[in-house]
Write a structure and sequence with these properties.
Blueprint lengths: L32 H16 L8 H4 L26 H6 L18 H13 L3 H16 L7 H10 L2 E7 L4 H9 L3 E7 L14 E9 L5 E5 L4 E5 L1 H15 L3 E7 L4 H8 L26
Antiparallel strand pairs: 1-6, 2-3, 2-6, 3-4, 4-5
Helix pairs in contact: 4-5, 6-9
Length: 297
């Protein structure tokens, strides 16, 4: 399905005033020549995709195994000390005002509102106080006592000027890499335990996170509102977290989103129905983290 056109004209890019730090081991080192080669390979593979960043892998003529060779080695979900290789494309091609600033949700049900706020603030920076106010307003207007369903998330995103371009129930690595390389981002509905780099054991709760980058080893950059953290997870872990959420909680998958210059009504119209692939289950907080001193509730 070709959905490459934007709803409105591009939003001018301005130099970001803040770039949030990413969690890295204390022995992090600069990217070595071997890693740089991987970056070059990633860039070349993205160029090989069709110019439509939201075109499916099959439509672009790329096999589903194309990105397998960039999967991280080592433990699943390991944190890798490299930068987002698409950071410049995110700003310049996406027209965002700045990088996503990781934001902690206000309570144990408003992770959806927190994700919409993070994406909205990348478009129109509001500062910490403004983010807290926006989270409360989004939750009150669109959320429920059970959290945020994919349909409600679409409406929250339209309210902050972000368009839902496509919804998938499972991870499409080619589509996600192409989206990130063209300035788009993703809101993923995952299992809150399965997505964490250090996690293991029983499932948690359905939980919304932002995916807005990739490092040189093919791991995805995740912004998690449960504690306002940023970390990298490999494709297997991200895909499994989406699958677990759908199987265990009735909702899971990914919304591909784009900065758009259009009114809320138009964005609701073009986004309608694209959430259906994710199911009806709402995203909430993290059972594994909500009783921790690291969370605000």
């Amino acid at each position: 399905m070709n959905v490459s056109s934007k709803v409105g004209p591009s939003v001018p890019w301005t130099q970001p005033s803040e770039t949030p730090a990413v969690q890295s081991p204390t022995n992090a080192t600069a990217v070595n020549p071997a890693e740089q080669t991987v970056v070059d390979q990633v860039a070349a593979a993205v160029q090989a995709l069709a110019s439509d960043s939201f075109q499916t892998a099959d439509a672009a003529g790329a096999g589903s195994e194309q990105w397998d060779k960039y999967a991280a080695t080592g433990p699943t979900g390991s944190t890798v000390p490299t930068d987002n290789v698409f950071s410049q494309e995110q700003l310049e091609k996406g027209g965002w005002a700045n990088d996503v600033v990781p934001t902690r949700q206000n309570n144990d049900i408003d992770c959806g509102a927190a994700v919409a706020t993070m994406l909205g603030s990348a478009k129109n920076p509001t500062g910490t106080a403004g983010q807290q106010e926006q989270m409360d307003a989004l939750q009150a207007k669109f959320g429920s006592a059970d959290g945020t369903t994919p349909e409600q998330m679409t409406k929250m995103l339209a309210n902050v000027g972000v368009e839902v371009r496509r919804g998938d129930s499972t991870l499409d690595q080619n589509a996600l890499a192409g989206t990130l390389s063209m300035g788009g981002k993703a809101a993923a509905l995952v299992d809150s335990n399965a997505i964490r780099p250090e996690s293991g054991g029983e499932p948690g709760a359905a939980h919304w996170v932002v995916v807005d980058g990739m490092n040189s080893q093919g791991d995805y950059q995740v912004r998690d509102p449960s504690d306002g953290s940023t970390y990298y997870v490999n494709p297997d872990k991200l895909g499994a977290a989406m699958d677990t959420a759908r199987a265990q909680h009735g909702g899971g998958g990914m919304l591909f989103v784009e900065n758009a210059k259009a009114d809320e009504q138009t964005l609701n119209t073009v986004g309608a129905g694209k959430d259906e692939a994710l199911g009806k289950g709402p995203g909430t907080g993290s059972k594994a983290w909500k009783n921790s001193a690291e969370t605000p509730w």
